[in-house]
Amino acid sequence: MSTLSIENISMRFDLPGGGHVQALKDVTLELQSGELLSVLGPSGCGKTTLLNILAGFLAPTEGRIMLDDHQVKGPDAERGMVFQQGALFEWMSVRDNVSFGPRMAGRSKADYTDSVNHLLEVVGLKDFKDKAVYELSGGMQQRVALARCLANDPDVILMDEPLGALDALTREKMQGLVLKLWKETGKTIILITHSVEEALLLGERLLVMAPRPGRIHKEYRLPFADEGVGKDLREVKKNPEFGQKREEILSMIWDMEEEIMGRTEETA
Amino acid sequence: MTLLLIYIAVFALSFFVVRKLLRGAMQRRDFTSLKTVTFGDESAVRPDRWASVISVVTIFLLWGAFTGSHWVPIHAPGPFVGDTQFTYTLEAPDGARDDATVYARVFKVGEAVEEPEIEPGDGFAKNDAITVGAWRSELLLMDKNDEAKRSEGAKIVAIDGQPAGPGDTVKVADGEVAITSKGSLNFSPAKGMQMEPIWLPAPEAVVARVGEIASQGYQNFTLWEHLYWSLFRVIVGFFFGALVGIPLGYAMGLSDWFRGWFDPIVEFMRPVPPLALIPLVIIWAGIGESGKIILLFLAALWIMTISARAGVSGVAISKVHAAYSLGASKWQLMRHVIMPNSLPEIFTGARVAMGVCWGTVVAAELVAAEKGAGMMIMVASRFQLTDIVIMGIILIGIIGYGIDILMRKAEKWLVPWKGRV
């Protein structure tokens, strides 16, 4: 199976007026096949940069990403991506959006129709497959994005705040769906989020990153994702251990934010 | 001036009439009708179709009323037609004065007319008879039959009893009389408020012209041939403009080198109005078809290039990333993401380009052409065939409007997601 290893990744942007920004410094991490990792951190901690490097949209200034035995050098169908706003193709129906990957790979219609139909059923859009995507609600659009990503059968799925733009109720439902898909497909998933609760619920492993320079601050192994599969996630949240972890991480992030504020005030 | 006041009056009056009488019956029962804040909410302002209908009808009524159309029951006062008279007082060199009457018969231009029969009258100033066309004026050498001549020192001292000398203008019963600097009379019958057909023909005359030119043609080509050729040039010019412009715009949106190479050219050519190229195109390609099509090609080219370039830069980067992550190649990204995503921009550009091309072809035909809508009205204006000119302008407007409607329909059909993402 596939192992994703992040080896000493550093990312430095030079600023036009001289000086530079150290977006990431010496990030090292190894992810086994089928692991679900959520990444949390205050803004500016480089989590989106890390995801873009993993997807192959950016090349790191130092270090490398290895997926099994080969190095990641650019975007590829082996690493699927789910964006905050679906990034769906409005000129295609729901079905054509989902079958985009297989079609681009040149697979025959007979070959992919069954799996596309199955995926649409799993995400609950069986009756909407001929609709235009702009006719769907935000939550349904994210379901299309998930199905589209899975239709390609990638080794790793990268999610950049996939539920960030949804309302609270839809978000909860979608969290359940993500867990279900993770368990059913056994994919390696890296999920970036702003929400501590979401990171705890969906992260089998949870990475808290610190800013300036962006680096790994602390890593947790959590039981909640496994517990939550197929269950009402509100029950999981009632677990006292869940509340305790949430407080711990929240205050950790608060401290980081305050430190940043303090530093900015000093320089100002 | 009067016309403007009448127009404003009709505007205001119909507003109140429609508001008071029809509002209750016309009440729409949809969501927008429940909005209480409408002043300032652009989405709550919907065109009042009554106003549109009344607006168009008003223009035709005013047109008919001020041209004496048979189709319109009410008319603005027309020019004076019929018999009228005025007197002048001639002073002989010895100081003696005598009155004479001028009998004027005002006729419609184009109709047969005879001079009124008159008595010479007594005294040394004799009565005169003249005929004048409506809207025209007539010079009267009144002393031809008088016993005292201007050459002998006689002069006019009054018109209709009002003292007047050379250079003066006096109002008389149905018009006005001017005394020229040499002392003769110039009679202009009252013009009324209607327009003379040579300025603005009545609507029925224009419609009659449409029938005549549609069947018999004008300047060796029928009306449909003139319009066909104009449209043909626009479509061919636009087609080639789009054929070259869209790929060029894509290339500029996708490649540094293309962007750098063509940026100065496109940015320089864009503000040059196509009309300014007409002289150069005539020098290079003459006034035949190729010249027109080159001109329209150039008119459409830059607009299509810029809109295609804007279409490429309008692609959300997340869509491009998504497509690559799903395994699309560069060509597949082009075909399945960039091209469809740029369609809305390209359609907007195409609508603008079609409008510009239609305007340019008419202008180019005005300058020089053997056939075409613009040529038709230009030649007609040289012969003061105002009805053909008006007809041509109306048809050019209708076709331009029709093109835009077709483009919008096509856009709705091909780009249903526009404005909904």
From TrEMBL, chain A:
EC number, UniProt record: 3.6.3.36
CDD domains: ABC_NrtD_SsuB_transporters
Keyword Zinc (UniProt): no
Protein family: Belongs to the ABC transporter superfamily.
PROSITE patterns: ABC_TRANSPORTER_1 (PS00211), ABC_TRANSPORTER_2 (PS50893)
SUPFAM superfamilies documented for this protein: P-loop containing nucleoside triphosphate hydrolases (SSF52540)
Pfam families: ABC_tran
Phylogenetic classification of the source organism: Bacteria, Pseudomonadati, Pseudomonadota, Alphaproteobacteria, Rhodobacterales
Domain ABC transporter: 4-236
Enzyme class (EC, first level): hydrolase
Record key words, sorted: ATP-binding, Cell inner membrane, Cell membrane, Hydrolase, Membrane, Nucleotide-binding, Translocase, Transport
Source organism, top-level taxon: Bacteria
A GO molecular function held by the record: ATP binding
Name of the featured protein: Taurine import ATP-binding protein TauB
Automatic annotation (TrEMBL), chain B:
Record's keyword annotation contains Transmembrane helix: yes
Localization, UniProt: Cell membrane
Span of domain ABC transmembrane type-1: 227-407
Keyword Zinc: no
One GO process term, biological-process aspect: cellular response to sulfur starvation
One GO CC term on file: plasma membrane
PROSITE patterns, sorted: ABC_TM1
Alphabetical list of SUPFAM superfamilies matching this protein: MetI-like
Keywords: Cell membrane, Membrane, Transmembrane, Transmembrane helix, Transport
Membrane topology: Multi-pass membrane protein
Alphabetical list of Pfam families matching this protein: BPD_transp_1 (PF00528)
Superkingdom assignment: Bacteria
InterPro entries: MetI-like (IPR000515), MetI-like_sf (IPR035906)
TM region positions: 6-22, 227-248, 268-287, 294-317, 346-367, 388-407
Family note: Belongs to the binding-protein-dependent transport system permease family.
Function: Probably part of an ABC transporter complex. Probably responsible for the translocation of the substrate across the membrane.
Name of this protein: Putative aliphatic sulfonates transport permease protein SsuC
